[in-house]
Amino acid sequence: MEGLSVEERLKIANSFLLDSPPGEVNDVYSDIKVLLNNNNAAYQEGLLDALRQYNIEQYVTVTLPEQESMVILSKYGQIENDRFFDPKSHQAFTVDHISQDVTEVEPHTPDETTEPLRSAVETAISEYVADHYPKGASATYSTGETITIAIVDNKYNPSNLWNGRWRSTWVISPESGEIKGTIKVNVHYYEEGNVQLNSTKDIEITSSPVNSEDLAASAAAYSKSICKAENEFQTALNESYIELSENTFKGLRRALPLTRHKIDWDKISNYKIGQELANKS
Fold it and tell me: Cα dist. 107→9, 24, 81, 215, 269 in Å?
């Protein structure tokens, strides 16, 4: 990176950080610090900004003191740069985006007007996530006239050289019953190579307007619609990769020679060397 300005170096470094595969951002961060080899305050602040953006966009989770459930870091729960709130426990907290340690925990008062519906949706979504995601976490926010749901689940398997993350975001308009969602899946496989899957799908669902007399029923209907949409996406994704594995990838493979045996390139090299020696003699 010699010859580049601080801004140019940070732009390159931040692009690496923001593209970090699931579960590997700390490794990328450590490598970038070595590459920059500079304790300049501008570098430190610039990398911190990128880490903050990564944690928020990727729905990184933290754990609050004396609380078992994971808390999602998202823009919907962001109070300011490093200050967030957990809608489930009604607590605000400060997070260190490098270590992901949580400090300065204090009560956070919810909006009394929207809290009954938000709480009902949260209960239904929490049950759905617990049933369908092995290590899933969810958060349900009241965002003005809408209810926003964030869902994330991570599967890290570095011993077998792969990691993966599922993220989905759903925005419910209670008055109309309209639900808009985005599902994102990112998988990194790095055994003797570097292969990433990035899949994104936007979805729109028409549901019933909220029933103010039975909020639990409305919340259950929203959860059911989201469950159906996510199951359909996952089924379609599985089918596409079966097609890739059984047909597309086979078409890319190099055909065997007429002998129907793989070529032993070491032997061919030896034959060539032997022939050259024979010619010289």
Answer: 40, 32, 18, 25, 73
Walk across the sheet containing 83-86 and list its strands. Answer: 78-80, 83-86, 91-95, 102-107
Instruction: Please give the pLDDT value at position 122.
Output: 98
Residue type, 19: D
Check if the beta carbon of residue 70 is closer than 8 Å to that of residue 121.
no
Confidence of residue 254 (pLDDT cuts 50, 70, 90): low
Residue 241 confidence (pLDDT):
75
Q: Which CATH superfamily is domain 1-58 in?
A: F-actin capping protein, alpha subunit (3.30.1140.60)
pLDDT of residue 238: 86
Q: From 3.40.50.12780, 3.60.10.10, 3.30.1140.60, 3.90.550.10, which CATH number describes the 63-109 domain?
A: 3.30.1140.60
- Please check whether residue 184 is in contact with residue 200, taking contact to mean a CB–CB distance below 8 angstroms: yes
Q: Which superfamily is assigned to 114-250 in CATH?
A: F-actin capping protein, beta subunit (3.90.1150.210)
